[in-house]
Amino acid sequence: MDNMARGTIEMTAAMAILGTIGWFVVLSGQPIMDVVFWRCAFGAVTLLIICAALGLLRGRLSLRVVAIAALGGAAIVINWLLLFSSFSRASISIATAVYNTQPFMLVGFGALFFSERLTMTKLTWLGIAFAGMLLIVQASPDAGSNAGPNTGPNTGNVGTDYFTGIAMALGAAFFWAVTAIVTKKLKGTPPHLIALIQVCVGVVMLAPFANLSHLPADAWSWSMLATLGVVHTGLMYILMYGAIQKLPTHLQGSLSFIYPVVAILVDVVAFGHRLHPAQIVGAAAILVAAAGMNLGWTLWKSKPPAESTQAIK
User: Fold this and answer.
1) Percentage with pLDDT > 70 across the chain
2) CA 208 to CA 309: how far, in whole Å?
3) Which position has the higher pLDDT, 4 or 250?
4) Measured at the alpha carbon of residue 154, what is the angle toward residues 151 and 157, in degrees to the nearest 5?
């Protein structure tokens, strides 16, 4: 099997695993703070073993690397807290779709801090994504109603605090973009080592707030939490980073959309969530716009410069 095929399998598996994360968060039955803490704890043990086995702990760490990776770690932990909290409020499907506005957060950061040019194509994709967001918001439960949990007009099971859920998913996307920008400063540092530092930061950050005096009493909850740390963190990072080393950028971007598709399927099959037609259109608009941004799609052909045209003649 060549590298391209192996990388495709690894990326597909990583995104499929990531797409099921909401399912395990819900099934754990634990407070979100505890879920993220134990994900970091189990993930740290897994990644420590992997980094030691790969020899990444020898002479790789400097104060600069640790400081920058720790900053990114703080952002990624906040990202997880917001994203996981959004699942119960806006549903896994909607939260995942809104979370995929990440590319636009990166474009905004690029324009603000790195003087990157905003092209008409990028602005068009941003406009399409924003229109999708408006459709999702307008399909929300009536803010003035007294509907019970998991109810809404034609939405099936939607959390009671729908707007907060959307805001949390947007916040999660923002902090993911912060992590991506910070991590760019660590070019040349093994990604497994960066991930290890990030989850260790998560353990330290959340230990004072996690409910460590009342640990889960059943094996089921522990198995869900361990799976989130070992599989959704350790194994997923190994597969994803392995694929990134083997695949061209455009193929990485294409395969990354397996994640929201799997998440939406899990929401429908496992939890029976049914989306309002406007929500379906809105989610599709965001995902198509994100794909267009990631993969460099253009909506029109640019005219060749006049000088080039004359030269051809």
Assistant:
1) 88
2) 66
3) 4
4) 35
Cβ-based burial of 115 (10 A; exposed 0-12, middle 13-18, buried ≥19): exposed
Structural contact between residues 199 and 74, judged by C-beta atoms closer than 8 angstroms: no
Q: Is the pLDDT of residue 23 over 70?
A: yes
Measured CA to CA in angstroms, residue 155 lies from 65, 89, 158, 210 at distances of: 46, 12, 6, 33
Amino acid at 113: F
Two tokens, residue 87: 């699942």
Q: State the pLDDT at residue 144.
A: 37
Choose among 241, 192, 232: nearest CA to 16.
232
Inter-axis angle of helices 92-99 and 277-295, nearest 10: 30
Cα–Cα separations (whole angstroms), residue 151 to 44, 97, 270, 273: 38, 19, 17, 10
**Could you read off the pLDDT of 228-249 as tens digits, one per residue?**
999 999 999 889 888 877 888 7
- Determine the residue type at 191: P
What ranges in the chain are assigned the alpha helix state H?
Answer: 3-19, 21-28, 32-53, 63-90, 92-99, 102-113, 120-138, 162-183, 191-206, 219-229, 236-246, 249-255, 258-271, 277-295, 306-312
The phi and psi torsions of 174 (rounded to 5 degrees) equal -60, -50
Residue in this structure with the two tokens 């109810």, named with its chain if needed? 151
